[in-house]
Design a protein that fits this description.
By secondary structure, this protein is of the alpha/beta class. Helices cover about 35% and strands about 25% of the residues. The protein has 16 helices and 16 strands. A 9-stranded mixed sheet has the order 3-2-1-4-5-7-6-8-9, with helices on both faces. It has a 7-stranded mixed sheet with strand order 11-12-10-13-16-15-14. The N and C termini lie far apart (about 55 Å).
Length: about 425
């Protein structure tokens, strides 16, 4: 049995078990085969289109775990297309204005036709930190020409092999250091940068200046060489500090979540387009569609008063999604949807009526109880299982579950929180549909 045959036949098997059976297959390059099987198994979950493509080579485990999923890569493609259209349209308007021509009623019908009307460096992009090439394989589709840059020679060979299999024929692969290549690259429509977020000891970094390459240091060159730059950063990073560090060049912040988990922080930088900073909180479904999108301008809303929670009234409670939580835009959210915060630090919101389109989960509050033992017994009658969450509450979920003696699961949701008056309450709820 050849290595390729082994990979095809056993790719759905447990790699740990396969490793123990290596002696049975003397003609198989077992380390390579196990890497490919493990890579395919991760791709089946994160990159189903890649997993379905015969012949794709997968990199070592770390690169597979760190690469984007299809939904987040698709989001970046949509963002790249929108910004390419915006900056090229801006260039067209400048050129038309200089020539004294008003063609506002004769704009090209499509993005490609619009881009094709331009000369010089229109419709080209360079990914300076290519990695396994997932983001590149998506974002490059928005451009007539694209260059992948990666200093790891092994990854370059893998990507050079994979791109034609994925139908990408507009790409050039360059093995080079990002900083050195940036100094020689011709001006681009877009530069893409995903700086490494681990230090020399392998520890994660959360400051922009600690990433490699240092985007803050490269900022003048990035702005000189591109109409816009897209930065992909860790969701752990403080985006307010990153915006400050980038000296007023950030036009958009995109906080992207998938399946309830914050996955990426994207910053779009440009000096070509002058605009007010906007923050996009996107919560994506696994089908690559935006299931919810909340857009706001930081500081646009005044603080919203705390809710006066009354135990005798049935209300709705709303839990923001992970992107909203990361953005911290609770005043803007309350103003946009007419909901009231339980308290400033609860990050839970109440309403008397259902709220359509709320970016998160909504529940019907069936009962509200204090931590008084008598009240608890009465409120929890008939409840043997529940999903418990704590928001601004002195007990952890595990501690509260032990005290309530309730198992995990079921269709009941208990939110433990603290009101503005300092009262500890449990909101016993069910999902609103």
């Amino acid at each position: 049995m050849t290595t390729a045959e082994f990979i095809r036949e056993y790719r759905e098997r447990d790699i740990r078990q396969l490793a123990l059976q290596a002696n049975r297959f003397p003609d198989v390059d077992m380390p390579y085969a196990l890497d490919q099987i493990q890579g395919w198994q991760i791709a089946r979950r994160k990159l189903p289109k890649w997993a379905a493509c015969d012949g794709v080579i997968f990199p070592p485990h770390l690169s597979m775990e760190q690469c984007s999923s299809e939904p987040t890569a698709q989001y970046k493609l949509n963002l790249a297309m929108e910004w390419a259209s915006r900056v090229e349209s801006s260039e067209l308007r400048v050129e038309n204005s200089a020539e004294g021509v008003n063609n506002s009623s004769e704009q090209p019908a499509t993005l490609n036709s619009q881009l094709s009307t331009l000369n010089c460096h229109a419709s080209c992009m360079t990914d300076l930190t290519g990695g396994f090439g997932v983001d590149f394989s998506f974002t490059s589709c928005a451009f007539a020409a694209a260059t992948y840059v990666e200093r790891n020679e092994q990854l370059c060979h893998i990507v050079e092999h994979n791109l034609p299999l994925l139908g990408l024929n507009n790409a050039t692969v360059v093995c080079a250091d990002a900083v050195e290549y940036l100094s020689t690259v011709e001006p681009q429509t877009m530069l893409f940068l995903d700086p490494a977020r681990r230090d020399e000891h392998g520890a994660k970094t959360v400051m922009l200046a600690d990433c490699t390459p240092d985007v803050v240091q490269l900022l003048p060159k990035l702005l000189e060489k591109s109409r816009f730059t897209m930065l992909k950063l860790s969701p752990m990073l403080d985006w307010h500090k990153a915006v400050d560090d980038l000296q007023g060049t950030v036009r958009e912040v995109h906080i992207v979540s998938v399946g309830g988990e914050c996955k990426e922080l994207l910053l779009v930088l440009s000096t070509v387009v002058e605009s007010e900073l906007k923050v996009y909180c996107a919560d994506l479904s696994t089908a690559s569609d935006t299931s919810s999108l909340f857009v706001y301008t930081p500081g646009s809303s005044a603080p919203v008063a705390n809710s006066k929670l009354k135990t005798q009234n049935s209300k709705f409670v709303h839990e923001p999604n992970a992107s909203i939580m990361k953005a911290g835009c609770f005043d803007e959210l309350a103003a946009a949807y007419g909901v009231s915060p339980v308290s400033r630090n609860s990050h839970l919101f109440l309403s008397d009526e259902p709220v359509e389109g709320f970016p998160g989960r909504s529940f019907v509050v069936e009962r509200v109880t204090t931590m008084n033992k008598g009240e608890l017994r009465k409120a929890l009658v008939g409840i043997e299982k529940a999903n418990i969450a704590t928001r601004n509450f002195p007990l952890t979920v595990a501690e509260l579950r032990r005290r309530l003696k309730i198992k995990d699961g079921g269709d009941v949701y208990i939110f433990a929180t603290t009101t503005a008056e300092g009262e500890h309450l449990l909101l016993i709820s069910r999902k609103y549909r």
